[in-house]
Amino acid sequence: MTPMMQQYHEAKNACGDAILLFRMGDFYELFNDDAVTASKILGMTLTSRDKGENATPMAGFPHHQLDSYLAKLIQQGYRVGICDQVEDPKQAKGIVKREITRILSPGTLTDDSLLSPKESNYLAAVLSEGDQAGISWIELSTGRFLAGVFPASRLADELARIAPSECLLSEGTDVLPKHTEGKFLHTQRPAWAFGGKAADEKLSKHFEVKSLDGFGFEESDRLAVRAAGAILDYLQETQRGSLEHVQSIVPYRQTNAVEIDESTRRSLELTRTIRDQRRDGTLIAVLDRCRTPMGSRLMADWLASPLADVEQIHLRHDAVEELMNDLPLCEVLAEALAGVYDLQRLLTRVTTGRASPRDLSFVGRTLGKLPRIKAKVTSRKSKLLGEIESQIDLCPEVHDKLAAALVEDCPLTTADGGFIQDGYDAKLDELRGLAAGGKQWIANYQAEESEKSGIANMKVGFNKVFGYYIEITNTHRDKVPAYFHRKQTLKNAERYITPELKEYEEKVLSADEKAKSLEYDLFAELRELVQAAADRLRQTAAALAQLDSLVSLGTLARDRNYCRPKIDETTELAIVDGRHPVLDVTEEAGTFIPNDTTLGGEDEDFVAIITGPNMAGKSTYIRQVGLITIMAQMGSFVPAREATIGVVDRVFARVGASDELSRGQSTFMVEMTETARILNTATERSLVILDEIGRGTSTYDGVSLAWSIVEFIHDRIGCRTLFATHYHELADLSQSLDHVTNLNVAVKEWDDKVIFLHKIVAGAADKSYGIYVARLAGIPHDVNERAKQILAQLEQEHLDLDGRSKIRPKRERHPKTDLQLTLFGPSEHPVVDEIRQADLSGLTPLDAFQKLIHWQTELKKKPGEK
Ligand SMILES: Nc1ncnc2c1ncn2[C@@H]1O[C@H](COP(=O)(O)OP(=O)(O)OP(=O)(O)O)[C@@H](O)[C@H]1O
């Protein structure tokens, strides 16, 4: 093996399973399996190093294309190690020294070129013990670090909320749900990295604290802390740069947030469309009119966990209302915010020493926008705007210094200088003067020499090897003065130097060199100044993000004519002229038909069964209700004329499970598992949206299941529910259940044609028009006609004498506390729940005995007995 290949293998071993990019001259090369993988993913040509038995597959690309190749590899979920030449090849004795300079993986990106500005990029770590799971997550590009403990059953939902791009798990465990494999990179770490003691030590050392109590962690947070320890361990191993910007860790307490599970997020297309996983056509794309990446990321956070606390929701609504009603204010703020850079990510680069002069000038320009922004939000009515105002710290000393020091258009590196303004530093001005003066002298010297010798086209040039030289074409060779020393011969010319030229060259070069080095020192000073203000700047960045999100919601509300929803503690859901927020924007203006919703108010039914033909708009309608509710609780106004929403604790939405095949489970099984979860976890305060549940099995099974599911929700949970179905039989439920109402979508028949009116009206649908829709879709005429015949026959056989479906289960009424055998196993006796809730420590022995008698009596009663 050549010494270089030896070097390669050492580097390869040191970077584990990462693909290694090995710098050779102007190229990055990949070998063996890495070369094969990369040629497949990046479409690079596969060549071979050596021939015959020793042939090694090899592929490579020019070094300046590193960013684009890195982005592609990372996007595909690979880890990538970069091995660079760390000494100047010209100076190298023997083989050039190389080192791994970075190991990148999807969760550890910090380069702007590899990150999406509008989305947070999280690295997560999980571990699970018993029925609990610890999750920690960090956004390395901003230093935001959180950790929390959750019921193990919520692991998948929490990961769906966080949406990490990489997740660490302990080797040999399989805590992560299978279907997440393609969604984010699963990185196995040794079990010890998740150890409790190791975590305490690492975290305390990093944050320079005695214990993590100061951050608010408690004994019950052990799993969270262990997950956080695993993250820190991984970062220390893979990040060669400093982690100084990671300055605190926040315990995540799941209070006052609406729980939204993974399927609901997907079904409602909150951030990705179901069909092609795009952002366009989702709720976030409608909501996000932010001017800064920080605002966009915060908006995504707000949408990921809407508020469940009425007071907090009111605070956001107050601010949005104030902004919405003040167009000039919104405009001024939006304009000022458009000039605000991504302060959070900039600060990370500053504190980790990776900031460029341009980064510092962006910090300066952002600070320049603050006085105007702060003045505009001063003495506003809404409390939230007041808080934002007080958190914006102008940091005038930082701003003034940056503004005075840096030129308008700063370069991306410090290498060539040229970023400090003239007049900022006297010493620098002097050196620049010297260098410039030297250059002027050289120009004069050339003119004089040219005059003296009569060589008109004498040129002064500069290169790294000879420094300044005089170039004379061969035609004038005979006129060259004797004191010119020839240094280099070209094809048509000769290059000369003179002692005088050399003397000035020395002055110019050393002044240039000194100026650059001084510029670097001044730059470092500025960087330290920003770094010293990092905490205040971080707080300011957070306030700007909030303001940006609120302005975005305010302008959206104004432009799309939204209303302020009334949020209270009732269980009402009343929407007048509600619109689907996405279709409202994408459909041609005025074509979307608004619809009302009334559920769960006093004397109102809380379960709505929506029947109606295919294509009528059932799915659109029920999703719209879910989306409006989520928007309202995240603090947005809603696309409706009026809305009253009794605060919701969980939203469940299930729509056709057709995209679930990738999970490797039967569609029907998935549908039932998810429905089971709703039935087991929804509360009286939840909102349930079911679209054609039970469709994936035989009609009789499907109807029976759908029927009993609605009964269960009605009797046992009592929450606001919208159930869209093709089973018209379900309409009969309204007769046997007190709080079920029927809705359908109006349709007009006209000349053998069907016109969908998209208007939701009371009552049940009587026809499906499925065969009609099939015709629209291009099913051959013969098939269609034959289907009509069969339909007629079937209807004959399955209708009773009144012309109603024979599939109509009888039902005995059960009061809520009845013992029933339910779909998902026998239910518990209410006494069990009483025992579970009983506060035993507060009972005297006598009380306890009486309770026991009471429970026994209850258990001995027959069902229904008082
Ligand atoms: N309120 C509305 N106003 C205007 N167009 C609408 C409205 N609701 C739905 N539509 C249009 O009708 C199309 C079909 O709607 P949707 O998918 O909700 O029907 P559906 O009744 O659920 O159909 P299926 O039962 O076949 O799933 C939508 O793509 C949309 O373009």
From TrEMBL:
GO terms for cellular component: cytosol. This is DNA mismatch repair protein MutS. ATP binds at G612, P613, N614, M615, A616, G617, K618, S619. This protein is involved in the repair of mismatches in DNA. It is possible that it carries out the mismatch recognition step. This protein has a weak ATPase activity. GO terms for molecular function: ATP binding; ATP-dependent DNA damage sensor activity; damaged DNA binding; mismatched DNA binding. Residues 686-702 form the DNA mismatch repair proteins mutS family domain. SMART domains: MUTSac, MUTSd. Belongs to the DNA mismatch repair MutS family. The gene is mutS. The keyword ATP-binding applies. The keyword DNA repair applies. Keywords: ATP-binding, DNA damage, DNA repair, DNA-binding, Nucleotide-binding. InterPro entries: DNA_mismatch_repair_MutS (IPR005748), DNA_mismatch_repair_MutS-lik_N (IPR007695), DNA_mismatch_repair_MutS/MSH (IPR017261), DNA_mismatch_repair_MutS_C (IPR000432), DNA_mismatch_repair_MutS_clamp (IPR007861), DNA_mismatch_repair_MutS_core (IPR007696), DNA_mismatch_repair_MutS_N (IPR016151), DNA_mismatch_repair_MutS_sf (IPR036187). One of its GO terms (biological process) is mismatch repair. It holds the Pfam family MutS_IV. It comes from the Bacteria.
